[in-house]
Amino acid sequence: MNKSIPEKLSSQIDAGVKLAMKKAIERHRRLGESISIWQDGQVVTLTADQIPPLDSTVSTDK
Q: What is the pTM of this model?
């Protein structure tokens, strides 16, 4: 099997997961829901007001 195919597929999967995470975080921000993140070795909960807006270059459309 060609080694570059799994690497390319892996890169596409990584990009898709990152985009999905960005969209989910933006959805929480827009709906006023908090999120919990790992920061400096502990869990930190951010209110919707503390979540930075999503980069405008990323579409949140389905």
A: 0.72
